[in-house]
Amino acid sequence: MAADPTTMHPASGSGNGQEKEQEALKDTFPASDPVGNEGGRGSRAVPASEMQDEDPAPLADGKTVSYTFDSQEKAKLAGEGVVRAGLAERSRLTVDGSSLRLEVASNAAEDADRMLQQAGGRAS
User: Fold this and answer.
1) pLDDT digit string, tens, across residues 26-82
2) Is there a domain that residue 46 lies in?
3) According to the lineage, what is the superkingdom (predicted)?
4) Which among 29, 51, 85, 101 could bridge 94 via Cys, Cβ 3.0 to 4.6 Å?
5) Is 94 exposed, middle or buried (0-12, 13-18, 19+ CB in 10 A)?
6) Do the domain assignments include residue 77?
7) Measured over all CA atoms, what is the biggest interatomic distance in the chain, rounded to whole angstroms?
8) Measured CA angle at 70 (ends 68, 72), to 5 deg
9) How many CA atoms lie within 13 A of 16 on its CB side?
10) What angle do CA 115, 124, 81 make, to 5 degrees?
């Protein structure tokens, strides 16, 4: 027959020492881990907004392409497609209403043009 856990009592002296030891170690392990991210303190030394340049330097062999779309959503999706294909950096993409402006390297301009035209864009 199994013992009833509600009626069991720890052996005299041994349980009390273990409880004190566990209580003492509760907030100390592992000591090498940093304190978790707190609301008032970020994980970066510099905020991300300060690390990003407002205007990136122009590409040495860059070409700017401009397209107009039927809607702002189509312009954003087309620009995102070019960025995801690796033909341009997101920082070089500007969407203003249904107009898209993108700076790409000259060797990627033809592919970017093709993608933007396939997405329904008209060169402007």
Assistant:
1) 666 565 656 555 555 556 566 666 766 666 677 778 899 999 999 999 999 999 999
2) no
3) Bacteria
4) 101
5) middle
6) yes
7) 87
8) 80
9) 3
10) 25
